[in-house]
Design a protein that fits this description.
Blueprint (H helix, E strand, L loop, with lengths): L1 H23 L13 E2 L5 E2 L7 H4 L10 E4 L2 E4 L4 E4 L11 H13 L14 H5 L9 H7 L9 E7 L6 E6 L5 E5 L9 E3 L24 H4 L10 E3 L4 E4 L5 E3 L18 H13 L13 H5 L24 E7 L6 E6 L4 E6 L9 E2 L7
Antiparallel strand pairs: 1-2, 3-4, 4-5, 5-9, 6-7, 7-8, 10-11, 11-12, 12-16, 13-14, 14-15
Length: 371
Amino acid sequence: MIRKIMPIMLSVLFIIIIMSTATFADTVRLPQTGQRKCYNASGTEIACTGTGQDGEIQAGVAWPNPRFAVSGDCVTDNLTGLMWAKTGNMPNDKKTWQGALNYVASLNSSGGLCGYADWRLPNINELESLVNAQASNIASWLQSQGFRNVQPFYYWSSSTYSCGTRNAWYVHMGDGGVGGGVKSSTSYVWPVRGGQSGSLSNSVIWKTGQTTKYAAGDDGDMQKGVAWPSPRFTDNSNGTVTDNLTGLMWTKDAKTTGPSACKPEEKKTWPDALDYVACLNTKNYLGYNDWRLPNRKELFSLVDHSNCNPAIPTGHPFTNVQSGLYWSSSTIVGFEKYASDSYMWDGNVGNYGKSANHYIWPVRGAASLGH
Protein backbone atom coordinates (compact mmCIF):
# COMPACT_ATOMS: atom_id res chain seq x y z
CA MET A 1 0.00 0.00 0.00
CA ILE A 2 2.81 2.43 0.90
CA ARG A 3 4.55 1.75 -2.41
CA LYS A 4 1.35 2.59 -4.31
CA ILE A 5 0.70 5.79 -2.36
CA MET A 6 4.24 7.23 -2.63
CA PRO A 7 4.17 7.75 -6.44
CA ILE A 8 0.80 9.50 -6.10
CA MET A 9 2.15 11.75 -3.37
CA LEU A 10 5.20 12.57 -5.48
CA SER A 11 2.96 13.40 -8.43
CA VAL A 12 0.86 15.71 -6.29
CA LEU A 13 4.01 17.37 -4.95
CA PHE A 14 5.27 17.86 -8.52
CA ILE A 15 1.96 19.48 -9.54
CA ILE A 16 2.12 21.80 -6.53
CA ILE A 17 5.66 22.84 -7.45
CA ILE A 18 4.62 23.53 -11.05
CA MET A 19 1.61 25.55 -9.89
CA SER A 20 3.83 27.55 -7.54
CA THR A 21 6.21 28.25 -10.39
CA ALA A 22 3.30 29.38 -12.61
CA THR A 23 2.16 31.78 -9.90
CA PHE A 24 5.68 33.20 -9.58
CA ALA A 25 5.82 33.71 -13.33
CA ASP A 26 2.96 36.15 -12.94
CA THR A 27 4.92 38.44 -10.63
CA VAL A 28 6.99 41.48 -11.46
CA ARG A 29 9.89 43.08 -9.67
CA LEU A 30 9.43 46.82 -9.60
CA PRO A 31 12.57 48.76 -10.52
CA GLN A 32 14.15 51.56 -8.57
CA THR A 33 13.02 55.01 -9.65
CA GLY A 34 16.59 56.22 -10.18
CA GLN A 35 16.41 58.77 -7.34
CA ARG A 36 19.62 58.90 -5.29
CA LYS A 37 19.37 62.21 -3.45
CA CYS A 38 17.09 63.68 -0.78
CA TYR A 39 15.58 67.14 -0.39
CA ASN A 40 13.72 69.05 2.28
CA ALA A 41 10.45 70.95 1.84
CA SER A 42 12.37 74.04 0.72
CA GLY A 43 14.03 72.10 -2.07
CA THR A 44 17.48 72.02 -0.50
CA GLU A 45 19.49 68.83 -0.83
CA ILE A 46 19.99 67.11 2.54
CA ALA A 47 21.61 63.95 3.85
CA CYS A 48 19.34 60.99 3.19
CA THR A 49 19.90 59.04 6.40
CA GLY A 50 16.72 58.70 8.40
CA THR A 51 14.53 60.67 5.99
CA GLY A 52 12.49 57.75 4.63
CA GLN A 53 12.62 59.39 1.22
CA ASP A 54 12.96 57.56 -2.09
CA GLY A 55 16.59 58.66 -2.31
CA GLU A 56 17.37 56.90 0.97
CA ILE A 57 15.29 53.72 0.60
CA GLN A 58 15.95 53.18 -3.12
CA ALA A 59 13.38 50.38 -3.10
CA GLY A 60 13.29 48.11 -6.12
CA VAL A 61 15.49 46.28 -8.59
CA ALA A 62 18.80 48.05 -9.17
CA TRP A 63 19.37 49.25 -12.73
CA PRO A 64 21.89 47.27 -14.76
CA ASN A 65 25.07 49.00 -15.87
CA PRO A 66 24.81 49.92 -18.64
CA ARG A 67 21.08 50.50 -18.50
CA PHE A 68 20.80 50.71 -22.29
CA ALA A 69 22.53 48.91 -25.17
CA VAL A 70 22.70 50.72 -28.51
CA SER A 71 22.69 48.64 -31.70
CA GLY A 72 22.35 50.52 -34.98
CA ASP A 73 19.07 52.42 -35.05
CA CYS A 74 17.67 50.65 -31.99
CA VAL A 75 18.30 50.68 -28.23
CA THR A 76 17.55 47.82 -25.83
CA ASP A 77 16.66 48.61 -22.24
CA ASN A 78 18.56 46.03 -20.19
CA LEU A 79 16.26 46.70 -17.23
CA THR A 80 12.97 45.85 -18.95
CA GLY A 81 13.98 43.93 -22.06
CA LEU A 82 12.13 46.41 -24.28
CA MET A 83 13.67 47.56 -27.56
CA TRP A 84 13.11 51.19 -28.57
CA ALA A 85 13.78 53.12 -31.73
CA LYS A 86 17.02 55.03 -31.19
CA THR A 87 15.44 58.19 -32.55
CA GLY A 88 12.85 59.63 -30.20
CA ASN A 89 11.09 61.50 -33.00
CA MET A 90 11.15 59.23 -36.05
CA PRO A 91 8.27 60.96 -37.89
CA ASN A 92 10.06 64.27 -37.29
CA ASP A 93 6.65 65.64 -36.43
CA LYS A 94 3.86 65.30 -33.89
CA LYS A 95 0.82 63.11 -34.59
CA THR A 96 -2.71 62.68 -33.35
CA TRP A 97 -3.24 59.49 -31.34
CA GLN A 98 -4.70 57.66 -34.33
CA GLY A 99 -1.95 59.15 -36.49
CA ALA A 100 0.63 57.70 -34.08
CA LEU A 101 -0.92 54.24 -34.35
CA ASN A 102 -1.04 54.58 -38.14
CA TYR A 103 2.61 55.64 -38.25
CA VAL A 104 3.79 52.55 -36.36
CA ALA A 105 1.64 50.29 -38.55
CA SER A 106 3.17 51.93 -41.62
CA LEU A 107 6.67 51.41 -40.17
CA ASN A 108 5.99 47.67 -39.92
CA SER A 109 4.40 47.37 -43.37
CA SER A 110 7.33 49.16 -44.99
CA GLY A 111 9.95 46.79 -43.63
CA GLY A 112 10.24 47.79 -40.00
CA LEU A 113 13.40 48.79 -38.19
CA CYS A 114 16.56 46.91 -37.19
CA GLY A 115 15.24 43.78 -38.89
CA TYR A 116 11.96 43.70 -36.97
CA ALA A 117 8.43 44.41 -38.16
CA ASP A 118 6.56 43.99 -34.87
CA TRP A 119 6.86 47.53 -33.57
CA ARG A 120 4.00 49.05 -31.59
CA LEU A 121 3.03 52.23 -29.82
CA PRO A 122 4.05 51.61 -26.18
CA ASN A 123 1.38 51.19 -23.54
CA ILE A 124 1.46 53.58 -20.60
CA ASN A 125 3.42 51.20 -18.34
CA GLU A 126 6.05 50.71 -21.03
CA LEU A 127 6.38 54.43 -21.72
CA GLU A 128 6.59 55.33 -18.02
CA SER A 129 9.44 52.82 -17.57
CA LEU A 130 11.78 55.30 -19.30
CA VAL A 131 11.38 57.88 -16.52
CA ASN A 132 14.40 58.55 -14.30
CA ALA A 133 13.34 60.28 -11.08
CA GLN A 134 16.81 61.74 -10.56
CA ALA A 135 16.84 63.50 -13.92
CA SER A 136 15.67 67.12 -14.15
CA ASN A 137 15.02 66.57 -17.87
CA ILE A 138 14.16 63.02 -18.91
CA ALA A 139 14.81 63.73 -22.60
CA SER A 140 18.32 65.04 -21.96
CA TRP A 141 19.14 62.08 -19.73
CA LEU A 142 17.91 59.59 -22.35
CA GLN A 143 20.05 61.27 -24.97
CA SER A 144 23.06 60.87 -22.67
CA GLN A 145 22.25 57.13 -22.66
CA GLY A 146 22.49 56.76 -26.44
CA PHE A 147 19.11 57.89 -27.72
CA ARG A 148 18.83 60.87 -30.04
CA ASN A 149 16.30 63.56 -30.88
CA VAL A 150 14.21 62.91 -27.74
CA GLN A 151 11.76 65.73 -27.16
CA PRO A 152 11.13 67.08 -23.62
CA PHE A 153 7.39 67.11 -24.27
CA TYR A 154 4.39 64.76 -24.47
CA TYR A 155 4.62 61.28 -25.99
CA TRP A 156 1.58 59.18 -26.83
CA SER A 157 1.00 55.81 -25.27
CA SER A 158 -1.36 53.26 -26.81
CA SER A 159 -3.53 53.29 -23.67
CA THR A 160 -6.90 55.02 -23.71
CA TYR A 161 -7.86 57.22 -20.75
CA SER A 162 -10.57 55.28 -18.95
CA CYS A 163 -12.16 58.36 -17.34
CA GLY A 164 -12.92 59.77 -20.80
CA THR A 165 -12.23 57.61 -23.84
CA ARG A 166 -11.80 60.58 -26.19
CA ASN A 167 -8.45 60.94 -24.44
CA ALA A 168 -5.31 58.78 -24.28
CA TRP A 169 -2.46 58.56 -21.81
CA TYR A 170 0.88 60.25 -22.38
CA VAL A 171 4.21 60.70 -20.59
CA HIS A 172 5.96 64.06 -20.50
CA MET A 173 9.62 63.41 -21.28
CA GLY A 174 10.63 66.60 -19.54
CA ASP A 175 9.43 66.08 -15.97
CA GLY A 176 8.14 62.49 -16.19
CA GLY A 177 4.49 63.38 -15.59
CA VAL A 178 1.78 60.90 -16.62
CA GLY A 179 -1.52 62.33 -17.81
CA GLY A 180 -4.26 62.21 -20.41
CA GLY A 181 -4.65 64.24 -23.59
CA VAL A 182 -7.38 64.55 -26.23
CA LYS A 183 -6.73 62.01 -29.00
CA SER A 184 -7.28 64.64 -31.68
CA SER A 185 -4.43 66.76 -30.30
CA THR A 186 -0.84 66.05 -31.35
CA SER A 187 2.06 64.53 -29.43
CA TYR A 188 5.29 62.73 -30.25
CA VAL A 189 5.62 59.07 -31.29
CA TRP A 190 8.18 56.53 -30.05
CA PRO A 191 7.92 52.93 -31.34
CA VAL A 192 8.79 50.00 -29.06
CA ARG A 193 8.91 46.24 -29.42
CA GLY A 194 9.84 43.09 -27.50
CA GLY A 195 10.00 42.89 -23.77
CA GLN A 196 9.62 39.79 -21.65
CA SER A 197 6.63 37.65 -20.76
CA GLY A 198 7.73 36.33 -17.36
CA SER A 199 9.84 36.98 -14.29
CA LEU A 200 13.56 37.54 -14.78
CA SER A 201 16.37 38.81 -12.60
CA ASN A 202 15.63 42.26 -14.02
CA SER A 203 12.34 44.19 -14.01
CA VAL A 204 9.60 43.40 -16.49
CA ILE A 205 6.52 45.38 -17.48
CA TRP A 206 3.05 44.29 -16.43
CA LYS A 207 -0.28 44.63 -18.21
CA THR A 208 -2.09 47.93 -17.75
CA GLY A 209 -5.47 46.31 -17.12
CA GLN A 210 -6.92 47.68 -20.34
CA THR A 211 -8.81 45.09 -22.41
CA THR A 212 -11.14 47.19 -24.56
CA LYS A 213 -9.93 47.82 -28.10
CA TYR A 214 -10.49 51.36 -29.34
CA ALA A 215 -8.25 51.15 -32.41
CA ALA A 216 -6.06 48.57 -34.14
CA GLY A 217 -2.70 48.29 -32.43
CA ASP A 218 -3.76 50.03 -29.22
CA ASP A 219 -3.26 48.76 -25.67
CA GLY A 220 -6.59 46.93 -25.50
CA ASP A 221 -5.80 45.23 -28.79
CA MET A 222 -2.19 44.22 -27.96
CA GLN A 223 -2.46 43.72 -24.15
CA LYS A 224 1.30 43.51 -23.72
CA GLY A 225 2.99 42.77 -20.42
CA VAL A 226 2.99 40.23 -17.62
CA ALA A 227 -0.50 38.98 -16.79
CA TRP A 228 -1.90 39.83 -13.36
CA PRO A 229 -2.16 36.91 -10.93
CA SER A 230 -5.60 35.81 -9.85
CA PRO A 231 -6.45 36.92 -7.28
CA ARG A 232 -4.51 40.15 -7.75
CA PHE A 233 -4.68 40.93 -4.01
CA THR A 234 -4.71 38.89 -0.81
CA ASP A 235 -6.40 40.24 2.32
CA ASN A 236 -4.10 39.09 5.13
CA SER A 237 -6.86 39.59 7.75
CA ASN A 238 -4.54 41.69 9.91
CA GLY A 239 -5.09 45.16 8.47
CA THR A 240 -2.75 44.55 5.54
CA VAL A 241 -3.19 43.54 1.88
CA THR A 242 -0.55 41.90 -0.31
CA ASP A 243 -0.39 42.70 -4.01
CA ASN A 244 0.35 39.35 -5.61
CA LEU A 245 1.58 41.08 -8.77
CA THR A 246 4.41 42.99 -7.08
CA GLY A 247 4.76 41.32 -3.68
CA LEU A 248 4.24 44.67 -1.96
CA MET A 249 2.22 44.83 1.25
CA TRP A 250 -0.10 47.82 1.74
CA THR A 251 -2.25 48.95 4.64
CA LYS A 252 -5.79 47.76 4.00
CA ASP A 253 -7.19 51.15 5.00
CA ALA A 254 -6.15 53.59 2.27
CA LYS A 255 -6.77 56.66 4.43
CA THR A 256 -4.36 57.90 7.05
CA THR A 257 -4.97 55.67 10.06
CA GLY A 258 -2.82 54.43 12.92
CA PRO A 259 -2.03 55.11 16.57
CA SER A 260 -3.27 58.44 17.93
CA ALA A 261 0.31 59.28 18.91
CA CYS A 262 1.11 59.49 15.19
CA LYS A 263 -1.62 62.11 14.60
CA PRO A 264 -3.49 60.20 11.90
CA GLU A 265 -5.28 63.08 10.19
CA GLU A 266 -6.68 62.26 6.77
CA LYS A 267 -4.22 64.43 4.82
CA LYS A 268 -0.72 65.68 5.52
CA THR A 269 2.01 67.77 3.97
CA TRP A 270 4.88 65.83 2.41
CA PRO A 271 7.27 66.27 5.37
CA ASP A 272 4.49 65.33 7.78
CA ALA A 273 3.66 62.27 5.67
CA LEU A 274 7.25 61.06 6.00
CA ASP A 275 7.19 61.74 9.75
CA TYR A 276 3.87 59.93 10.07
CA VAL A 277 5.23 56.75 8.47
CA ALA A 278 8.32 56.95 10.69
CA CYS A 279 6.00 57.14 13.69
CA LEU A 280 4.12 54.04 12.52
CA ASN A 281 7.40 52.17 12.59
CA THR A 282 8.19 53.25 16.16
CA LYS A 283 4.77 51.88 17.16
CA ASN A 284 5.27 48.58 15.27
CA TYR A 285 2.06 49.33 13.36
CA LEU A 286 0.11 46.17 12.40
CA GLY A 287 3.11 44.15 13.57
CA TYR A 288 5.73 45.72 11.28
CA ASN A 289 8.37 48.41 11.71
CA ASP A 290 9.50 48.82 8.10
CA TRP A 291 6.65 50.81 6.59
CA ARG A 292 7.56 53.50 4.07
CA LEU A 293 5.93 56.14 1.93
CA PRO A 294 5.74 54.46 -1.51
CA ASN A 295 7.95 55.78 -4.28
CA ARG A 296 6.37 56.93 -7.54
CA LYS A 297 6.66 53.55 -9.26
CA GLU A 298 5.20 51.64 -6.31
CA LEU A 299 2.20 53.96 -6.18
CA PHE A 300 1.81 53.76 -9.97
CA SER A 301 1.81 49.95 -9.80
CA LEU A 302 -1.64 49.99 -8.13
CA VAL A 303 -3.30 51.65 -11.11
CA ASP A 304 -5.75 49.73 -13.28
CA HIS A 305 -6.01 51.67 -16.54
CA SER A 306 -9.38 50.16 -17.31
CA ASN A 307 -10.97 51.72 -14.23
CA CYS A 308 -11.89 55.19 -13.04
CA ASN A 309 -12.85 56.69 -9.70
CA PRO A 310 -10.83 55.02 -8.27
CA ALA A 311 -8.42 53.68 -10.86
CA ILE A 312 -7.46 50.49 -9.07
CA PRO A 313 -8.45 46.89 -9.88
CA THR A 314 -12.08 45.86 -9.48
CA GLY A 315 -12.72 43.55 -6.54
CA HIS A 316 -9.81 44.86 -4.48
CA PRO A 317 -10.10 44.31 -0.69
CA PHE A 318 -8.95 47.81 0.34
CA THR A 319 -11.15 50.16 2.35
CA ASN A 320 -11.49 53.93 2.17
CA VAL A 321 -9.70 54.33 -1.16
CA GLN A 322 -9.86 58.03 -1.94
CA SER A 323 -10.28 59.42 -5.45
CA GLY A 324 -7.78 62.07 -4.56
CA LEU A 325 -4.04 62.72 -4.45
CA TYR A 326 -1.62 60.42 -2.64
CA TRP A 327 1.96 61.34 -1.80
CA SER A 328 4.94 59.38 -3.05
CA SER A 329 8.37 59.60 -1.44
CA SER A 330 9.95 60.84 -4.70
CA THR A 331 11.00 64.47 -5.16
CA ILE A 332 10.65 66.20 -8.54
CA VAL A 333 14.27 66.92 -9.48
CA GLY A 334 14.63 70.35 -11.05
CA PHE A 335 11.64 71.47 -8.96
CA GLU A 336 12.78 70.17 -5.59
CA LYS A 337 10.07 72.00 -3.64
CA TYR A 338 7.66 69.56 -5.31
CA ALA A 339 7.11 65.84 -4.84
CA SER A 340 5.53 63.25 -7.10
CA ASP A 341 1.95 62.25 -6.36
CA SER A 342 -0.68 59.97 -7.82
CA TYR A 343 -4.31 60.93 -8.38
CA MET A 344 -6.24 57.77 -7.62
CA TRP A 345 -9.32 59.05 -9.43
CA ASP A 346 -7.68 58.31 -12.79
CA GLY A 347 -4.08 57.14 -12.16
CA ASN A 348 -2.44 60.42 -13.14
CA VAL A 349 1.16 60.95 -11.91
CA GLY A 350 1.90 64.60 -11.29
CA ASN A 351 3.64 66.88 -8.83
CA TYR A 352 2.59 69.21 -6.06
CA GLY A 353 4.32 71.60 -3.68
CA LYS A 354 5.45 69.74 -0.58
CA SER A 355 3.35 72.04 1.62
CA ALA A 356 0.11 70.69 0.08
CA ASN A 357 -2.01 68.19 1.99
CA HIS A 358 -2.47 64.76 0.40
CA TYR A 359 -3.46 61.26 1.47
CA ILE A 360 -0.95 58.66 2.65
CA TRP A 361 -0.89 54.96 1.80
CA PRO A 362 1.96 53.16 3.60
CA VAL A 363 3.69 50.21 1.95
CA ARG A 364 6.30 47.66 2.94
CA GLY A 365 7.93 44.44 1.84
CA ALA A 366 8.99 43.00 -1.51
CA ALA A 367 11.32 45.57 -3.00
CA SER A 368 12.73 46.76 0.32
CA LEU A 369 13.45 43.18 1.33
CA GLY A 370 15.37 42.36 -1.84
CA HIS A 371 12.44 40.86 -3.76
